[in-house]
Design a protein that fits this description.
With 98 residues, the chain is mostly helical. 55% of the residues lie in helices and 0% in strands. The radius of gyration is 15 Å and the shape is globular.
């Protein structure tokens, strides 16, 4: 898990997980560049319609939450072990409930 947190591209993970994370990274960083080929790649790695739906929804949700938190000025909890998130993946904010 630690290797994935640092950089999933360098982690010892299976092709299915790498395909999923490549898709999520692209959807996060360059959503306008998504193509049918990206979905086809997920299918080639064993993901069905529901699995692809879940990947898209979870990735999109994290992007939404991060933008909402940034827009509202939510402070990150610097004690979080996830504060050094990978550059290409969304890093969920850790917030305090008031």
């Amino acid at each position: 898990m630690e290797a994935i947190s640092r950089d999933y591209r360098e982690a010892d993970i299976g092709d299915e997980d790498r395909s999923m994370l490549d898709f999520a990274a692209k959807l996060t960083v360059a959503p306008q560049s998504m193509e049918v080929a990206d979905i086809d790649d997920l299918r080639l790695h064993g993901f069905d319609d529901l699995g692809i739906h879940d990947i898209v929804v979870v990735t999109s949700y994290f992007a939404f939450v991060n933008r909402a938190a940034d827009g509202l000025g939510v402070e990150l909890d610097n004690r979080s072990p996830r504060r050094n998130c990978p550059v290409l993946l969304p890093c969920p904010p850790v917030t305090q409930v008031i």
